[in-house]
Task: structure prediction
Amino acid sequence: MESAKKDIRALTKDQLRDFFVANGDKAFRGNQVYEWLWQKSAHSFETMTNISKETREMLEKNFVINHIKVDQMQRSSDGTIKNAVQLYDGLIVESVLIPTATRTTACVSSQVGCSLDCKFCATSRLKRMRNLNPDEIYDQVVAIDNESRLYFDKPLSNIVFMGMGEPLMNYKNVLQSIEKITSKEGLGMSPKRITVSTSGVPKMIKKMADEEVKFNLAVSLHSAIDEVRTSIMPFNKNFPLKDLREALQYWYSKTKNRITYEYVVWKGINDTQADVEALVKFCRFAPSKVNIIEYNPIDDGAFQQASNNAIDMYQKTLEANNITVTVRRSRGKDIDAACGQLANKS
Ligand code: SF4
Result:
């Protein structure tokens, strides 16, 4: 029966080598198949042309390749591409390709739905169904890399874990996917081109620091005042700012990597001088960069983008305190592909 077969990409290279030895073949056959599965991203055993027909049939009998399928692709007038990606069990997640003059960035999902409940985010309205497997995350990157080559004539240059889901709530699989993305047997990308963006789970940030990961960390902060942050990101009640700061301090002491904060300024929520002063104070303990992101309203309009004056106030105050700041325009708004808009509406 189809369901009794194992997902072959859940096996490590060593387990695959052992499988072949146990079946009277050479361990080396495991290396060949592993290369087909990851580096060549094979969708079927049939395409593995340097493997004998007999072996391919034996693999077919024992395993499946649960490859994702890009169910629908939408292109924005600004070039942004959004993929609705179908998983082996029929569930859908979204991933986005963001092109600029100098780079193409993949924004990938790590969970179906999300475990958290940020009030401004469309994904939070979807119940968390399950975590994505490492291969499902990897496949999103491969699909976007192919699109980047096809439509922009260059390979994918950067990856952000900023799509659907909280990556640190699917820690093990996210790290395994990064291992594959960066390994020579996978895509061979530099970890410096990968950013994991979290809402801030202190325990997991410390764990990452202990494991000396090489990728970048970004924190969706949005307020440095507990009361305000809890009102827009209710889980902040359990992980208050003092715990987050302590974890980030630990991260910096171990990695010496600058911390990036993602920050949206909303009208009437966090657009006062007191809000920016709290942010400056929060940033002081380590070299920081603040990305101010334009907000993309989701349908009920409870959150509105702050005025240009408020954004200017943030920018000037941060710069006056020697904190690097960028103000990012939103991309792909017309196809609901912008930050906070991913909600399987396509
Ligand atoms: S902003 Fe991120 S962590 Fe918060 S609900 Fe949306 S997907 Fe989840």
Summary: Residues 114, 116, 118, 121, 123-124, 164-166, 199 surround iron/sulfur cluster (CB under 6 Å).
